[in-house]
């Protein structure tokens, strides 16, 4: 067998495996959205979280934007690793760049700084739109390793 044919077959098999893994993540994401819609209610700190690294901009009232990486994201909020954290209690706007598994594009929502430290800040999301909540549910389902 020609080595080029063998390499092409191996590449095709690898792509098939990647497509299957992505389809599984998308299926879990859609299930998570259906579950969230079926049982709406108050959210707490024990919400499932996605261990990710997403580009984020945090805009405080009248100040310079703070850029960093959103990690540990849930429907209730996220941690932003950054060089300059805003003070606790600061109302802000968060702009997250979403991966394709969460619908892609950008999510923008209001938040409040719940924790501030040298390593970054914890943000509590406020007034999530249904579309934003769905995108976050898909993100968590796609990247939460505890879901199997």
Report on this structure:
This protein starts with a helix and ends in a 5-residue tail after the last helix. It has two helices and six strands; from the N terminus they run αββββββα. Mean pLDDT is 80; it is low at 40-45. It is of the alpha+beta class. It has a single domain (1-148), classed as Thrombin, subunit H (Beta Barrel). It has a six-stranded antiparallel beta barrel. α1 crosses α2. β5 and β6 (120-126) form a beta hairpin. The longest helix has 36 residues, at 3-38. The relative contact order is 0.19. The protein has helices at 3-38, 130-143, and strands at residues 54-60, 66-71, 77-81, 91-97, 106-117, 120-126.
Q: Mean of the pLDDT scores?
A: 80
Which oligomeric form is depicted?
Answer: single chain
Structural shape? elongated
- CATH fold assignment: Thrombin, subunit H
What fraction of the residues are assigned to beta strands by DSSP? 25-35%
Uncertain stretches of 5 or more adjacent residues: 40-45
Please tally the β strands and state the result.
Answer: 6
CATH class, please?
Answer: Mainly Beta
Strand-helix topology:
Layout: H1 3-38, E1 54-60, E2 66-71, E3 77-81, E4 91-97, E5 106-117, E6 120-126, H2 130-143
Antiparallel strand pairs: 1-2, 1-4, 2-3, 3-6, 4-5, 5-6
Question: Notable features of this structure?
Answer:
single chain, 148 residues, alpha+beta, Thrombin, subunit H, 6-stranded antiparallel beta barrel, 2 helices
């Amino acid at each position: 067998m020609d080595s080029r044919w063998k390499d092409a077959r191996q590449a095709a098999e690898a792509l098939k495996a990647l497509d299957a893994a992505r389809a599984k993540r998308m299926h879990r994401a859609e299930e998570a959205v259906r579950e969230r819609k079926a049982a709406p209610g108050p959210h707490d700190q024990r919400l499932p979280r996605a261990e990710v690294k997403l580009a984020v901009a945090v805009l405080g009232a009248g100040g310079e934007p703070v850029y960093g990486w959103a990690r540990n994201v849930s429907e209730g909020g996220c941690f932003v690793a950054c060089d300059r954290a805003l003070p606790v209690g600061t109302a802000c706007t968060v702009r997250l760049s979403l991966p394709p598994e969460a619908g892609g594009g950008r999510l923008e929502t209001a938040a409040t700084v719940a924790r501030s430290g040298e390593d970054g800040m914890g943000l509590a999301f406020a007034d999530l739109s249904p579309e934003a909540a769905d995108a976050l549910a898909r993100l968590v389902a796609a990247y939460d390793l505890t879901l199997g």
